[in-house]
């Protein structure tokens, strides 16, 4: 299968100006690639930089050095050197992100929150909402909640809305940041099936999954992030 | 469809500087704005954001620098070389300006319907029935009941006035809208409603927006890109979530860390 994503020499640190310019090294010389249809899981303890790597791929964090190359058809785009507009375009049609927490917007209903990425890709409102309802139903979000804004939902319900939002559209690259963190066994199984469907569609995935069972079921490869630890004393 | 595909910027700002005597209002600001893009200018009071907004919207001539705008016929024109007639036409039709204080952008002594209709008449609409029905439609889009169409805005609440001001600005289908703290001074619940409304309208109409705000949550919700200003200079700029989640400059880090969590 073709390579969809390639990280090469990626480094990240934070300079905390409010703490006297303390530099916190995060990762150094990250290098790995992900093929179409493959799910790579980032391993390592909390604080090893797993989330930071996902956020750099999504263009949410900047990286100090290195390239994050994304293949789109015959084109290769370096996310790390892209203009804001290019990153936004990539997020619309190429890179999806399932984060741990839903950022709710006042007055926007759960089904609209879920449908939004599909509408952004050009689907009609009706078609997108129908697909959204299908996913919310698969993820066992009670139907009476679909038309309500998710701000007042429980943590687990919000997360399932977020998962539905992350999985509704097709992106060649999908980033999973602990999608199963506060889910019960039945819903974890649904997420596992959703991931398997994405694999069959050739989606390249990078995930952070602390849940051992889920990880064993969906990971094709585990990359130990501690291998990219910065040489201390930065 | 994606709004990020156009190759031609709508607005090009080159080294805009404005002095007030010896004091700097804003210094050496350059950026491009593309169709459908929302740019937030953030910073504390006195940072130069309103000065910049006024320069961009031809309300205040820059001391040096140039601002070019793509007219509807596709030509790029230097805003400060337009004739007065051209500039007025632009402001009445192709642009909108949403003031923090709605009374600055509305005519307080004429009806809500007339406030919206007036902009239509300015672009040549003469048929009373059409003007009234379009005004009514726009009041509906900003969630003002039809039965308030003949009331004047003095009888409206702050939130309603702000929504009316938005309707008045958008009725001519502008391509570029300037907003100066559009949610400032409103209750939070009123603010949330207004933000949601703005977010939908901006995306449905594919508007380009330059919005000045000191509220980073407003910037995050509405904008694609952000410029952080301090002492008249742009100190950091980029993708909104990147600047807010991974701020580089000491001042931006201070701004982001000063947000109260609820």
Walk me through this protein's architecture.
The complex is a heterodimer of chains A (234) and B (262). By secondary structure, chain A is of the alpha/beta class. Chain A has a single domain, classed as P-loop containing nucleotide triphosphate hydrolases (Rossmann fold), CATH 3.40.50.300. Chain A is built from seven helices and nine strands. In chain A, helix 3 (110-120) packs across helix 4 and helix 3 packs parallel to helix 5. Chain A is globular, with a radius of gyration of 18 Å. The N and C termini of chain A lie far apart (39 Å). The model of chain A has no long low-confidence stretch (mean pLDDT 93). Chain B is built from ten helices and ten strands. In chain B, the strands form two sheets. Chain B has a six-stranded mixed β-sheet, with helices on both faces. In chain B, helix 4 (112-122) crosses helix 5, helix 5 crosses helix 6 (158-170) and helix 6 runs parallel beside helix 7. The two termini of chain B are 35 Å apart. The model of chain B has no long low-confidence stretch (mean pLDDT 92). At the A-B interface, strand 1 and helix 2 of A face helix 7, helix 9 and helix 10 of B.
SSE inventory with pairings:
The complex is a heterodimer of chains A (about 230) and B (about 260).
Chain A: E1 3-16, E2 22-35, E3 39-43, H1 50-57, E4 65-72, E5 75-78, H2 84-93, E6 95-98, H3 110-120, H4 125-138, H5 155-167, E7 173-177, H6 185-200, E8 204-208, H7 212-218, E9 221-224
Parallel strand pairs in A: 3-8, 3-9, 6-7, 7-8
Antiparallel strand pairs in A: 1-2, 1-4, 4-5
Helix pairs in contact in A: 3-4, 3-5
Chain B: E1 11-20, E2 23-33, E3 38-42, H1 49-56, E4 64-70, E5 76-78, H2 84-94, E6 95-98, H3 102-105, H4 112-122, H5 128-141, H6 158-170, E7 176-180, H7 188-205, E8 208-212, H8 216-222, E9 225-230, E10 233-239, H9 240-245, H10 250-257
Parallel strand pairs in B: 3-8, 3-9, 6-7, 7-8
Antiparallel strand pairs in B: 1-2, 1-4, 4-5, 9-10
Helix pairs in contact in B: 4-5, 4-6, 5-6, 6-7
């Amino acid at each position: 299968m073709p390579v969809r994503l390639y990280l090469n020499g990626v480094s990240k640190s934070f300079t905390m100006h409010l703490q006297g310019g303390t530099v916190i090294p995060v990762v150094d010389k990250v290098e790995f690639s992900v093929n179409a249809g493959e799910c790579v899981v980032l391993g390592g303890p909390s604080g090893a930089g797993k989330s930071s790597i996902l956020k750099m791929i999504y263009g949410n964090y900047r990286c100090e050095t290195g390239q994050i190359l994304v293949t789109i058809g015959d084109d290769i785009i370096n996310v790390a050197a892209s203009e804001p507009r290019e990153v936004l375009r990539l997020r619309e049609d190429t890179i999806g992100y399932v984060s741990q927490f839903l950022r709710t917007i006042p007055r926007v209903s759960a089904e609209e929150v879920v449908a939004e990425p599909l509408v952004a890709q050009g689907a009609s409102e009706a078609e997108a909402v129908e697909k959204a309802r299908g996913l919310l139903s698969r993820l066992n979000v009670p139907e009476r909640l679909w038309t309500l804004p998710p701000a007042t939902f429980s943590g687990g319900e919000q997360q399932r809305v977020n998962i539905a939002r992350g999985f509704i559209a097709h992106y060649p690259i999908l980033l999973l940041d602990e999608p199963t963190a506060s889910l019960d066994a039945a819903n974890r199984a649904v997420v596992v099936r959703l991931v398997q469907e994405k694999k069959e569609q050739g989606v390249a995935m990078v995930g952070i999954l602390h849940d051992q069972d889920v990880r064993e079921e969906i990971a094709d490869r585990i990359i130990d992030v501690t291998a990219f630890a910065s040489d201390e004393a930065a | 469809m994606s709004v990020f595909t156009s190759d031609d910027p709508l607005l090009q700002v080159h080294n805009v500087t404005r002095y007030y005597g010896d004091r700097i209002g804003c210094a050496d600001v350059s950026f491009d704005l593309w169709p459908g893009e929302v740019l937030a200018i953030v910073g504390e009071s006195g940072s130069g954001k309103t000065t910049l907004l006024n320069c961009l919207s031809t309300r205040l001539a820059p001391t040096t620098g140039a601002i070019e705008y793509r007219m509807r016929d596709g030509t790029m024109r230097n805003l400060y070389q337009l004739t007065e007639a051209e500039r007025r036409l632009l402001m009445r039709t192709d642009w909108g300006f949403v003031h923090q204080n709605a009374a600055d952008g509305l005519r307080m002594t004429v009806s809500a319907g007339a406030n919206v209709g007036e902009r239509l008449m300015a672009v040549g609409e003469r048929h009373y029935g059409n003007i009234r029905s379009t005004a009514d439609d726009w009041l509906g889009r900003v969630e003002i009941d039809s039965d308030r169409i003949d009331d004047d805005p003095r009888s409206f609440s702050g939130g309603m006035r702000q929504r009316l001001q938005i309707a008045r600005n958008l009725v001519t289908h502008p391509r570029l809208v300037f907003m100066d703290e559009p949610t400032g001074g409103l209750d939070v619940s009123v603010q949330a409603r207004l933000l949601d409304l703005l977010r939908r309208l901006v995306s449905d109409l594919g508007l380009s927006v330059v919005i000045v705000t000191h509220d980073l949550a407003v910037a995050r919700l509405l904008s694609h890109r952000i410029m952080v200003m301090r002492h008249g200079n742009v100190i950091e700029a980029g993708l909104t979530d990147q600047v807010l989640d991974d701020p580089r400059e000491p001042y931006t880090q201070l701004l982001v860390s000063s947000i109260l969590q609820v």
